[in-house]
Specification:
Elements: H1 6-9, H2 12-15, H3 29-58, H4 68-93, H5 98-105, H6 117-126, H7 149-160, H8 164-174, H9 198-210, H10 218-228, H11 236-247, H12 255-286, H13 298-307, H14 312-317, H15 332-337
Helix pairs in contact: 3-4, 3-6, 3-8, 4-12, 6-7, 8-11, 9-10, 10-11, 12-13
This protein binds protoporphyrin IX containing FE.
Length: 343
């Protein structure tokens, strides 16, 4: 057997022979290609990590004894780090001026980063649905610059699998915190409202007392989100679990779940940061021209930035937090049960 050789292992002959500018070698097109390819390689890694995390959460009980929860959080933190680099990388491309770009821009029509299948797959696997997308008609192959039939189908097929968001909702719903049997010893602070679990009956009062006159409307929101409908894709029970984890996050058993929720918020925030940086770069590069992919350009990107948050419900929860000193004391049975390695 011959020794493994660096360039063979990495198949550098393929990678390094895959930059074929359409313009003359004097332009910045090589940079433009290299940076896109780098993004695509990182997208590939991100998809790989998200798939592992989805697999972990797809099991009925995330087994913390086997460290699955910590593997999931670790993988998601890696995704955060990759996205930090992806945001940073925009500044390398910004060393190309808009006149430099004009040298070869017309040769690229009607292709565009809009058609990045891997980027769309990341969005879809995280939980963004076609109908929630800004100008979703742009995606269909009804105009130049949309997706070809195969890629459009790939995106919609990915949507049929369980998204990370759906799996997180199910996981939150499965948490055993509010089984009545655990709350027998709970000392209610206020008279218990009929038909409402003891803790949540108290919580409504505590939250109400924490509101200033100007904030009274928040109580209606609290009712809606934590006592009736939930919020967005998160059911009432899922929202309750998330709020509970955020409130009692100092308990050791909640460290990982809290880390998980925070990391999901980080991913959403970094995706938005990337969208924002990319939009600013686009404005600076092409002003108000339409994109090579035939959208309105910066206008489209602004719409996507506004609309494509994935875990927005998690941020919403913070509206309903209270001061730590006002948190009710939990009964021992709950503290003991607050483990994700339930039998
Ligand atoms: C000169 C630099 C760039 C310009 C002027 C530019 C411009 C645009 C424009 C105008 C769009 C909207 C679709 C269209 O009509 O074309 C778009 C979308 C997009 N571009 Fe770029 N882009 C640049 C670099 C990049 C790079 C380096 C990437 C990395 C993969 C990228 C990825 C994307 C993605 C993923 C979208 C879809 C965004 C979304 O829907 O939220 N672009 N780009």
């Amino acid at each position: 057997m011959t020794d493994l050789y660096y360039s063979d292992y990495l198949e550098l002959d393929k990678i390094l022979n895959s930059q074929n500018p359409k313009s003359s070698l004097q332009t910045d097109e090589l940079l433009f290609i290299v940076i896109h390819q780098t993004y695509e390689l990182w997208f590939k890694q991100v998809i790989h990590e998200i798939d592992i995390v989805r697999e972990i959460f797809a099991s009925e009980k995330v087994n913390d004894n086997a460290g699955e929860m910590s593997i999931a959080v670790h993988k998601l933190k890696r995704v955060v780090k990759i996205f930090e680099v992806l945001v940073q990388q925009v500044s390398i491309l910004e060393t190309m001026t808009s006149m430099d770009f004009l040298e070869f821009r017309n040769l690229l029509q009607p292709s565009s980063g809009f058609q990045s299948l891997q980027f769309r797959i990341i969005e879809a696997k995280l939980g963004l649905k076609m109908e929630e997308r800004y100008k979703s008609e742009y995606y269909k192959n009804i105009r130049q610059g949309g997706f070809n039939v195969g890629d459009y189908e790939s995106i919609t097929n990915v949507e049929k699998e369980a998204t990370l968001k759906e799996l997180i909702v199910k996981w939150a719903e499965r948490t055993p915190f509010f089984d009545e049997s655990l709350w027998k010893e709970y000392q209610s602070l206020y008279p218990i409202e009929n038909g409402i679990q003891k803790f949540w009956s108290d919580y409504k009062q505590i939250y109400k007392n924490s509101l200033s006159n100007a904030e009274q409307k928040q109580l209606e929101m609290l009712e809606k989100v934590f006592y009736q409908d939930g919020s967005g894709d998160f059911s009432m029970n899922a929202m309750r679990a998330v709020l509970f984890i955020m409130m009692y996050r100092n308990l050791p058993i909640f460290h990982l779940p809290f880390d998980l929720l925070t990391t999901l918020i980080d991913i959403d925030e970094l995706l938005s940061q990337w969208r924002y940086r990319h939009m600013l770069m686009t404005r600076r590069m092409i002003g108000m021209r339409v994109g090579t992919g035939g959208t309105s350009g910066a206008g489209y990107l602004e719409g996507a930035l506004r609309q494509h948050y994935i875990f927005k419900e998690l941020n919403e929860v913070t509206t309903f937090l209270i001061e730590r000193s006002k948190l009710p004391e939990l009964p021992n049975a709950v503290k003991e049960k607050m483990s994700f390695n339930t039998k």
